[in-house]
Design a protein that fits this description.
This protein is mainly alpha-helical. Helix content is about 70%, strand content about 0%. It is globular.
């Protein structure tokens, strides 16, 4: 007796090239969220050096921004997308969707150094303040013009050894986060531009006063 041949399984639907590309991008997004969550957790535990953390974080941020632009139509809300796919990654969401910059860029590294190095570091930060204020005076208001200058200023501030919390200094980090969350072609309005200039001036004054008090 001949056994009946089992029915052939239904042929899986073939994905188009566009659908395969989108699926691949979503898989990359999943991987970036998971990798960032692990990196942030390792940084909090002190299991990774500042240099290694910053290197990998900047790479993940760049990859995420590129993917986010490519998936903005299909995945406009990354947080909702993560929930739909069973992801719980609060640290990654804060880094990628919140601040948009490495934690080491926003906060000092807690280092100490000989007294003389403080003056040099403050001088470099003052130069960055002057450069940024000059740019604003010249009516440079586009995000892609100001963001590198604000980033340089914030990097110079966090590199100052033994720097205590000073009034107004934290506003520079706030501007870095604000500009990072804007599109490159966007511009600050007149009120924002004036406020940024004032905040930079106050930060420079605070640094100068702190250094004078120490000498």
């Amino acid at each position: 007796r001949t056994e009946p041949r089992p029915a052939a399984p239904a042929r899986a639907a073939m994905l188009t090239a566009a659908e395969r590309r989108e699926a691949g991008m979503q898989a990359e997004l999943y991987s970036i969220l998971v990798a960032t969550e692990h990196l942030e957790a390792a940084f909090v535990r002190g299991a990774v050096s500042n240099a290694d953390y910053e290197k990998h974080c900047m790479q993940l941020l760049a990859q995420f921004k590129t993917l986010q632009n490519g998936l903005k139509d299909k995945c406009p809300d990354v947080r909702a997308w993560a929930r739909e796919h069973g992801l719980s990654c609060p640290l990654a969401e804060e880094r990628l969707l919140g601040t948009g910059v490495a934690a080491t860029t926003l906060f000092g590294h807690g280092t100490s150094a000989p007294k003389g190095s403080e003056s040099l570091a403050c001088f470099k930060a003052s130069e960055c303040c002057i450069t940024l204020r000059d740019a604003l005076t010249l009516n440079m208001t586009a995000v892609d013009e100001l963001l590198p200058l604000v980033r340089d200023l914030q990097a110079s501030i966090v590199s100052i050894p033994n720097l205590p919390p000073l009034p107004g200094i934290d506003r520079i980090a706030g501007w870095l986060v604000t500009l990072n969350g804007m599109k490159a072609a966007e511009r600050l309005d007149d009120g924002q531009s004036r406020q940024l200039s004032l905040d930079v001036e106050q930060a420079q004054t605070a640094l100068r006063s702190w250094l004078q008090d120490k000498t």
